[in-house]
Design goal:
This protein has 236 residues and is α+β, with helices and mostly antiparallel strands. It has 4 helices and 15 strands. Helices cover 27% and strands 26% of the residues. The longest helix has 20 residues.
Length: 236
C-alpha cells in the first residue's frame, strides 16, 4: 500500500502542476493515466462501477465524482482532483483541491478549512480511538471556521478493495463507532461546502454538486493506523 500510495502522491503532484486556465479536465485525466500506468499501476477508478475515467475531476460547485471531459478551466475556478492507483494487489486513494490561477479570498479560506479538517482527522486517527473521534474532529474544525460538512459521502477503509469497511463519516460524535486498531488502513476525506451541506447527484448518475450552487472542496489521504501518529501513505 505504501507503493500504491506513492504512485498516487506522484500523480497528484503532476496534476497540481498541470492545472492552469485553458486546460480541459479531459487533458488532466490523460496526464493522470500516463503517470499512473508508466509506474506499472492501473487507475483504481477507471471502470469502477462503470466510471468512465481515470480520475474524478470536480470543478467549483461539484463536490465529488466529476467526470473529466471537454470543460475548460478558467481563472478563479477550483478543481478537486481525486486519484486512485492499484499496484500489486492494493489501492491508494487521495484527493486535493487546486486553485486555477487567482481565486477569491473566501474560496481560499474554504480550501484552507478543508485542509484543516483533514489534518484534524489524521490527528484523531490512532489505535484505541474510534471512528467517531475522526468524524467529530472534522466537523468541529470545519464548522468553527464557518463552513458546512457534507453528510451523504464519507471516508472509508481501503486496501485490497477500493472501498472497504469501516465507513468514516465527516460528522459525528466522539467516542462512538468502530474501534481503531493498529494496521487498519483508511481513506480520510473531508468534503466541505461554502454554503449549506445539502447536495444532489447530476443526471449523469455520478457527479455530486452542492444544492445551492456554491463552491465545495475535497482533500483526502490514505493513512495506516498505528499506536502513535497515523502513517500517511499518500504523501510524497
Amino acid at each position: 500500500m505504501r507503493q500504491s500510495g506513492h504512485i498516487v502522491a506522484e500523480t497528484i503532484a503532476v496534476l497540481s502542476e498541470s492545472v492552469r486556465p485553458g486546460i480541459t479536465t479531459q487533458e488532466l485525466d490523460q496526464i493522470a493515466f500516463r503517470t499512473i500506468t508508466k509506474q506499472g499501476a492501473t487507475p483504481s477508478f477507471k471502470g469502477y462501477r462503470g466510471f468512465p475515467a481515470s480520475i474524478c475531476a470536480s470543478v467549483n460547485e461539484e463536490v465529488v465524482h466529476g467526470i473529466p471531459g471537454k470543460q475548460v478551466l478558467k481563472e478563479g475556478d477550483i478543481i478537486s482532483l481525486d486519484v486512485g492507483a492499484f499496484y500489486k494487489g492494493y489501492h491508494g486513494d487521495s484527493a486535493i483541491t487546486v486553485a486555477v490561477g487567482k481565486i477569491h479570498v473566501r474560496t481560499q479560506e474554504l480550501l484552507n478549512a478543508c485542509q484543516a479538517g483533514l489534518a484534524a482527522a489524521i490527528a484523531a486517527a490512532k489505535a484505541g480511538s474510534r471512528v467517531g473521534d475522526i468524524s467529530a474532529a472534522v466537523q468541529t474544525t470545519v464548522e468553527a471556521l464557518g463552513f458546512s460538512v457534507v453528510r451523504e459521502y464519507t471516508g472509508h477503509g481501503v486496501g485490497r478493495d477500493l472501498h472497504e469497511d469501516p465507513m468514516v463519516p465527516n460528522v459525528g460524535v466522539a467516542h462512538q463507532g468502530v474501534l481503531l486498531r493498529s494496521g487498519m488502513t483508511l481513506a480520510l476525506e473531508p468534503m466541505i461546502n461554502m454554503g449549506g451541506w445539502q447536495v444532489y447527484v447530476k443526471p449523469n448518475n455520478w457527479t455530486v454538486v452542492t444544492r445551492d450552487g456554491r463552491p465545495s472542496a475535497h482533500f483526502e489521504h490514505t493513512v495506516a493506523i498505528t499506536d502513535g501518529e497515523a502513517d500517511i501513505l499518500t504523501k510524497l
